[in-house]
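Hi Y.,

Following your request, here is the sequence exactly as I used it, all 508 residues.
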Amino acid sequence: MIAYNKMAASDLLKISTLGELKAAGYESKSIKEELRQNLIKKISAGENVFEGIWGYEDTVIPDIERAILSRHNINLLGLRGQAKTRIARMMTALLDEYVPVVAGSELNDDPLAPLTSYSVELIKQKGDHTPINWWHRADRYTEKLATPDVSVADLIGDVDPIKAATMKLSYNDERVIHYGLVPRSHRSIFVINELPDLQARIQVALFNILQEGDIQIRGFKLRLPLDIQFVFTANPEDYTNRGSIVTPLKDRIESQIITHYPKTIEIGKQITAQEAKLDGKPLDKIHVPELMKDLIEQIAIEARHSEYVDEKSGVSARLTISAYENLISAAERRLYKNKEENTVVRISDLIGVIPAITGKVELVYEGEQEGAGLVAYNLIGKAIRTLFVDYFPSPEQKKKDKEGNPYVLPLSWFGEGNSLDVLASQSDKEYKSELHKVPGLENIITATIKGLPEKEKEFFMEFALHGLAEYSQLSKKLLDTGMQFKDLFSSMFDMGAPDEDDFDEDDN
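Below is the corresponding structure, written out as tokens. Let me know if you'd prefer a different format.
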């Protein structure tokens, strides 16, 4: 006969009684031991347990694997959008595909280690004929968002007077208890998100479950050695702003693992490409230069270091995902509006990602609604400024050199009173025509960037103009429908709407 641990799922599901389960060689094991053994198998086989989690290969994931090998409860500590909950959900892949439970058991009792009086009595009556059900690993996961209104009854349970009256039971009988989420998660992974938001008195109710394995409900003390893998998530901000994890509870959570944001643009791009929802979009008709993908990630990096953005709150990876989706949609809208066959995204399309930024950043000083929009616009400018010198000579340095300044021709053209409007809805033909009006601009691109695809030429020409504006060589003004570039000095006499230089003079 095939050993239990070698049996296929289809064979396991044929086992329907306790006697058959014993004959197959089934042995009880705790959920922590189950996770540990399956992790050992995956590590030994060179398998990636946390598929799709990028940037944690050398930091967070090894810490989690060590915690599982140590049979620890885990607290994932990090700012918003750092994949904490996703990691917790992926831990179900380390559970056995199916485990046996006593049929009809309220707490999914292990047939060889029953907890409830129902299962104990049933096994006593029926012995090896006790019916067995099978529980899939996908159902062995419970998640609860900690909010101030969560009660002990929600998590642990309460005495049910209606059940006591209906079944004519004494209040000393454990059958009058209505179990909460934690006991019902016996033999499961139980996740509490935003743990500090849980009231201190509710956190205290978890002490005994974590350490001693018993629960107390309204003075009803019940020895209930629950078998649970606890995973908590928390935001460092919460320790000071909204609440805190009480010290004795922190002491009982054996491993606290600190998460972080992507450390490189490349990792950020992998996450964005994986998570962006682009189904149904005409991606074969929209070309996105690699620089634009870098700019989207750089916006988030600038936000995380911006003096205007609350660093304690963090800037979620959702910012770049939403921004990239909006960027594609901006190009898609232009495609339909101009009835064109294909298009290349433009720097001016970044105006369309502002709504994706404003809801994802918390300002240090909350003001009018326009404030978040200005900060978003400023962050886009900073991202352009940062990446500009990776492709072109520094305008500040070239200005000092006098000789060999590649920017002289285009800057002189603007100095003669010329201006250039780059509009979001312009057809590709109009867009290219406008950019090629600027003398010397195309030469800068062809001389500086080697091996540039023909279809990206105008994209980089526009990028050059934005970069010159960010380095205070040109004036750039945000229009309702796009951008306007003018000579910097002539714009000083323009009494119209302020441009981004007015918003952030110290950076130039």
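The radius of gyration is 31 Å.

Thanks again,
Q.
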